[in-house]
Amino acid sequence: MRPMVMVIVAAVAVAISIAIYAATGAISSSSPCRCCSPCPCWAGGETEQPRPEQYRWLTSSPTPQAPIGAAKKAAAKARRVQAAPVDSGPEPADQTPDGPMTADRDESSRLSVGPEPPRARPARGWASGSSLPLFDGPPPGPPGFHYRSDIVTPVEAADLVDQFQRLPFEPFAFRGYAGNRRTVAYGSRYDFTHSRLHAAEPVPDWLSSLRARAARFAGVEDEAMAQALVTEYPPGAGIGWHRDRPEYGKVVGVSFSSPCTLRLRRRAGDGWRRESIRLEPGSAYLLDGEARDAWQHSIPAGDRLRYSVTFRTLRP
Predict the structure, then answer these.
(1) CA 304 to CA 258: how far, in whole Å?
(2) Of the candidates 187, 181, 182, 308, the residue with the CA atom closest to the CA atom of residue 253
(3) Does the structure show a pLDDT above 80 at 299?
(4) Bridge partners for 260 per DSSP
């Protein structure tokens, strides 16, 4: 009997010791325990339970695992969003007077808003939304857009830039505003104040060779290039969203001195379908057909001096 009593007394003593140990907070707050989740010991011994967002920051698993079904749905939604060819909403209009763009903004409402054809896979040099190029090959771009990287050699480009630096540039004028870029027009000049074309000085001889190459690139005779517009873009100057005046037809742009990004967009439902390409010095692009009539284009401001020569045909 006596041994049994001693066992019972010892068990009671152990139970009392455990209770006293827990009640007095003998668990150290200097290191985290695994007694509960979330554990107040992570918060320096505070008795208040951390909020869920605090706990996610304190633990090594920052994001709770979603149920398998929810994870599959989220992944499928992400794939649909990534594959979407248009933006989620319209882009606000440019507020600066720095572009013939502003004159054409009233035409943007006439852009095609019908169903889009299947989106072409972007190729090297092109950017479509956030997608990255996957394969080499000629850039797809909009129908009617063409790009050539070497229409002018570096030596020829240097000679032409030397000519540009001697020109009597004037700030681009648009309805009483003066833009950051400066221009000189040959062949024809568009008056944005009165919305009409005027004759300008003939294309000089030193531009005749470049005009011939631009004409061949566009598939027309040299004389069909009715305008040669030389533009100087100082650092910080760009050109906003626009389409060229409807009096003009095919457009060929040649870049000099520094690269830039040519952006293109067209309406697609409530948003925009977009493309962009890097224009290297000595390169040329052609806007014709749908790329000319249905798409707008722009060039963001750069941080280096750049020149361009834009050749345009007249519509019949």
Answers:
(1) 7
(2) 308
(3) yes
(4) 279
Of 101, 310, 105, which is closest to residue 203 (Cα–Cα)? 310
State the DSSP code for 94.
P
Give the max Cα distance, the chain.
Answer: 128
- Please state whether the peptide bond connecting residue 100 to the residue before it is cis, i.e. omega within 30 degrees of 0: no
Distance, CA of 179 to CA of 173 (rounded, Å): 6
280 within 8 A of 213, measured Cβ to Cβ: no
Token pair in block for residue 227: 């305008």
**What whole-number distance in Å separates Cα of residue 141 and Cα of residue 266?**
12
Cα 225 from Cα 311, distance rounded (Å): 6
State both tokens at 12: 């009671």
Structure letter (DSSP) for residue 121: P
Does residue 7 surpass a pLDDT of 60? yes
Asked whether the predicted pLDDT for residue 66 surpasses 70, the reply is no
Question: Could you give the CA distance from residue 260 to residue 108 in angstroms, rounded to a whole number?
Answer: 24
Q: Cα dihedral angle (301, 303, 309, 311), rounded to 10 degrees?
A: -20
Angle at 86 between CA 262 and CA 269, to 5 degrees: 115
Which tokens belong to 101? 């763009």
Cα–Cα distance measured from residue 243 to residue 293, given in angstroms and rounded to the nearest whole number: 7
For residue 51, the 8-state DSSP code is: P
239 with 181: CB under 8 angstroms?
Answer: yes
Separation of alpha carbons 111 and 127, rounded Å: 22
- The arithmetic mean of pLDDT across residues 55-67, rounded, is 40
For 163-209, the pLDDT digits (tens) are: 999 999 999 877 767 778 999 999 999 888 778 888 999 999 999 99
Query: Which residue has 């129908």 as its token pair?
Result: 143
Task: Identify whether the C-beta of residue 307 lies closer than 8 Å to the C-beta of residue 233.
Answer: yes
Q: Quick count: other Cβ atoms within 10 Å of Cβ 166?
A: 7
